[in-house]
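Dear Dr. H.,

I hope your travels went smoothly. While you were away I took the liberty of generating a structure for the chain from your last submission, since the lab meeting agenda had it listed for discussion. I wanted you to have the full record in hand beforehand rather than looking at slides cold. The sequence, exactly as received, is reproduced here:
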Amino acid sequence: MMNREDGVKAIITDPGLQKRLAKYLVLRCFRNSVLEDLHAGMVPDSQCGDYSDVVIRTPSGEIPWGKLSRIDDAEMRALMIDVVNRTYQFIHDLFDEEVGGKLLLQLGERDPVPEWESPKQREA
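The corresponding predicted structure, in token form, is as follows:
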């Protein structure tokens, strides 16, 4: 079992703990955000599988599914405000000596979302 100082050192050096922290941050700050409201609703069927056979009929004509903006400006603004606020709270908690230390210890013991793919670093 890690103590708080070991937890802080591990977050700096342990790629496994860094990956768990990344997944937890996305779970807490993005996945459980206004995104859930935007994600709710019906999804069209596509016989060909790539949605090239799906069009949206509007008063000004048809829009192919691949060219459709699925989030309007107001929804994007609400999403970004919510995600920024959640991320700010997450950072506040992470740097709180008691709360952040407990979080690091918990992440050291288990992956909060083991069913998610493991994060990979992007190439520059």
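Two observations you may find useful: The helical segments are 4-13, 15-31, 35-39, 73-95, 97-109. The radius of gyration is 20 Å.

With kind regards,
E. W.
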